[in-house]
Specification:
The chain has 230 residues and is an alpha+beta fold. It contains 8 helices and 6 strands. α3 packs across α8, α5 packs across α6 and α6 packs across α7.
Length: 230
């Protein structure tokens, strides 16, 4: 996509480069008018070019041509695309020793632990929800206190507390996994109020997804499940 602008005079700053998303536009216009013109220009260009690098070329008549696809070496880049930083991939194998150790202590299937962690935090030990749930197994503050979890962001403490809570729920609901998972997500009071899985879309989807990952982990040993169809 190409835009042309005239008759601003375009000059490279003394540093010899452009920083951030700043256009250096000099003209006989007042400073205030230059700012207005610049803002107007950016409001037109940036949405159209999305998150691409933006280049500019000034011809002999002082006409500025902006594009995200430069066609010759006379173009200069004035905006660099901001590329998102991707978090390093973390999987079940990262915490395999911890999961197996806690699994053995509480006699909880390690594949179930993996499935809960996968849905709760996607194996992100620093995860925090907008409701205040924290860590790998997304423990709420009251749950962490109930199970004496020293540090909710420490993987070993968090998994210990989460599995202990899951063990308690499985005992309470006599091994009913769906009810236990519903209580893990929505709380014991909600499950007892509705006499089963609460009619919350979030909770129903949560139970479905954990069971889906659980089945996938069991079918594939403890290989990492990269994707489960939502």
């Amino acid at each position: 996509m190409v835009f042309e602008m005239c008759p601003f005079l375009f000059d490279m700053p003394a540093s010899g480069s452009y920083s951030g998303s700043t256009f250096w536009i000099e003209s006989m216009m007042t400073k205030g008018l230059r700012h207005v013109a610049l803002l107007g220009l950016l409001s037109v260009i940036l949405p159209s070019l999305a998150i691409a690098d933006v280049y500019v070329y000034k011809d002999k008549q002082g006409v500025l041509t902006f594009t995200n696809v430069p066609t010759h070496q006379g173009f200069r880049r004035v905006i660099r695309e901001s590329r998102p930083q991707l978090a390093p991939e973390v999987s079940a194998s990262t915490y395999e020793d911890l999961i197996r150790s806690v699994s053995d202590r509480y006699s909880i299937d390690p594949d179930l632990i993996r499935a809960v962690i996968r849905v709760e935090s996607n194996f992100n030990s620093s995860a925090r929800s907008n409701k205040g749930a924290m860590g790998l197994m997304q423990l709420m503050p009251e749950t962490a206190r109930l199970h004496n979890v020293p540090d909710v962001y420490e993987p070993s403490d968090n998994i210990e507390g989460g599995v202990r809570h899951l063990k308690m729920l499985l005992a309470r609901y006599q091994g009913d996994l769906e009810l236990s998972l519903a209580a893990y997500n929505a709380g014991i009071k909600a499950v007892e109020k509705y006499g089963g899985i609460p009619p919350f879309l979030e909770t129903r989807d949560y139970v479905r997804r954990v069971l889906q990952y659980y089945d996938a982990y069991r079918e594939n040993g403890y290989q990492v499940i990269q994707h489960v169809q939502r």
